[in-house]
Amino acid sequence: MPKTKMMRYALIFLLLLPLVTFAQTDEIKKYKIIKGDTLWDISDRDLKDPFLWPEIWKENSWIINPDLIYPNQIIKIPIYLMKKEIPEEEEDASTAATASAGETFVFEGQTTTTQEQTVSSQELAKKEAKEETTKQPLINKNLLMASGYITHTIPQIGQIDELSSKQLVSGSGDIVYLDMDHPAKAGDKFYVINSSKSIKHPVTRREIGYVITIKGIVEVIKVKKSETIAKITKSFSEINAGDLLDSYYDIEPPMTQGRFRTPDINGTIIATGNNMALQAMLDIIYIDKGCKDGIEAGDMFKTIAVAAHKVPNGVIQVINCKDHTATAIIKSSISPISAGNIFTGMTMK
Fold this sequence. Notes:
Blueprint: H1 3-25, E1 28-32, H2 39-46, H3 53-59, E2 74-78, H4 88-100, H5 113-133, E3 136-137, H6 141-147, E4 149-151, E5 158-163, E6 175-180, E7 189-195, E8 199-200, E9 207-224, E10 227-235, E11 244-247, E12 255-256, E13 267-272, E14 278-279, E15 284-287, E16 300-306, E17 310-321, E18 326-333, E19 337-338, E20 342-345
Antiparallel strand pairs: 1-2, 3-12, 4-9, 5-6, 5-11, 6-10, 7-9, 7-11, 8-9, 9-10, 13-15, 13-20, 14-19, 15-18, 16-17, 16-20, 17-18
Helix pairs in contact: 2-3
C-alpha cells in the first residue's frame, strides 16, 4: 500500500477516535430547570424511573433541599443509570446456546433429574446475582439522616456549648465547643439533633413522643482540660449553641430493586417535618404504624384528607421504620398533606 494512502487512513482513524471516546464517556446530561419541574418528574422522564431521583440529587451536591429547585438552574442528569435490560427472547436464546454448547446431551423423551436440578440451581444463582447488581438505595443517605424519627424519650449525651468566633449559627467545617455529660476523646463522633415538643396523636390524643431530626455530625478534634473542641463534618441545617448531642451510629439507606409493597394497612399521619403544618412533595411526614405493625421500608400508601368527605390527596413511601411509628416521604401530592390525614394501601377503596 502506498505510504501516502497509509497516512491518509491513519489520519482518518485519529480524527474519528475522539468521536468514539466522546460517545463512551458522554454519560451526563445537562438540563436547565423550567417552572414546574421536580426531581421526581425529571427522573421519570430522563431515566425512565422516578425512584432514581435521589441519584440526580447526589450528582448535584449543591442542591440543599431536593424540593427546592428553581427555573434556569442547570443540573446534571446521570443518564448512565438508564441501563438497557436484555430482552427475554435474547436471554432465552443465550441460555439455549450455552446449553447446546455443553458436552452432555439429553435426547427427546429422556429426563435427567440431576441435570434439571443443576440447571435450576444455575438459573436461581443467575437471578439472585442479577437482582443484587440492580439494587439501588431507596433514598439519598443525607436525606435519610436528616428526615428524623419518633422516639418516646429525647436522647441526650451533651450539647453544643459555644460556637467559634461568637457566630450565631454554624455549618460544615466550623469549630464548636461541646459540653459533654461524659468525657470524650479525639476522633469521637456525635449527631447534632433537634427535638420537637411532645406530640399527641391527632385522633386519640394519646402521648406519642418526640420527633428527633439530625442537624449534622461533629467530630472531636481536641480535648484539653475542661474543653472539648469539635469540628462540624456535615450539616443538614444551621447548628446553634444549645443544640443537643446524640451517640453516633452508622445510618445506611435500605436497598431496593424498585418493586414496592402496598399492604392493606390503615393509619394516621401523626406529625409533619420541618415544623410545618402542611406538607407537599418530597417533604417528610410521620405515621402511627411501624415494623411491628407490618410496615417495611419502601412500602407505598395513598393519603386521604378527612373532612366532610374523604379526598385522596397524595402518595407516601416509608423510608425508615421503628416499632410502632415510621418516617415517610411524600412522593406526590395534589393538595397539602397534614397531621390527621389518614393513609391506606394503594389498592384499598
